[in-house]
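name: query_chain
kind: protein
chains: 1
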Amino acid sequence: MSREQRSDGVWAELVGQRRAVAVLRAAAEAAHAPGDARHAMTHAWLITGPPGSGRSNAARAFAAALLCERGGCGDCAICRTVASGAHPDVTLVRTELLSIGVDEARELANRAGMSPTIGSYQIIVIEDADRITERGADALLKSLEEPPPRTIWVLCAPTADDVIVTIRSRTRHVNLRTPTDADVARLLAGRDGIEPALAAHAARAAQGHIGRARALARDEEVRNARHRVLKVPAGLTSVAACLRAAEALVTSATADAERRTSELDAGELANLKEALGFGAKGARPRQAAAALKELEDQQKMRAKRLQRDALDAVLTELTTWYRDVLSVQLRAVDAGDLASATGGVGLINAELRDQVASAAASSTPEQTVRRVDAILAAREALERNVAPLLAMESLMLALADPDHS
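structure:
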């Protein structure tokens, strides 16, 4: 980590977020102030920003700054335990299911009524506040409106509109912006020691998503998987090819979800059986079947969400491809020198400049726009729980023939 990053303490990884950091830092300073000055500190916050902008990092940094005697130095035991998720006064909620329901919300409300264990504040961070159901929101309202004086809520979501209005109206809003490619590249080089050229490539490909950029920079297989997705449009030469491409993408997403959940599923099952009393004598307590069925349903929902997230990443990569094609068609970008005609960003997929130029020459801007619209429609279909294979087959056919989609 660079000297500049160390001097920024817990805020170091919030690249390009100067305004938001200033607001959160001032609030943390107010929280440490004596007497009535603490009234400047808000008890419920909503941190929003596009995927990869650092919402969760901002929430954890804020929590550390509230508890650290030096306002988030980044070096002390408090800052380190908050960052690792091990601090007893910081509750981190990140659902791997499709929603946060009323039962979990009630547990959080009960947690909010407790006193801090070792610190000045108890902080509850909900990283997926956009997944709180209406009944879950109802269970949280009283605690959000009138929390104990030492309890602070920090909610995170992509946008304020993604959060149920009764919740967002009771919070102070801080918005993060998409970091620039240069900001992300500097972070990768300074924090992770990534070679500058690779850091720049990963930052450009990730389009401001810090986690995605880090994965691309550190893992060659992630880069190869992305390259395979970008080759899909050129292979959509027949109906059969479209159907094969859709099946391959869904199969890959399903395998990725299974890989990420298999060990977790096994551990959860073992822990539940132990809690239910499945012992050496083979005891099977009453109502065990119901508990096992509930766990199985939750695990299926988690796998479904992860599969959908993997397909959403595919759609994002395809969007960058057609963005590049359209940019060349409109002469906003010169595919030969990668420069933007308006002085802005050039090609996202600069390493595929020849293929981009060829695709641009073989279609019209109107067709490219219709292809982008088809990608957006596929994303909406997946959000409506349309069968993934059906949604992707429809998309592949539309990409192959946008005039008849």
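note: Residues 181-218 form one domain.
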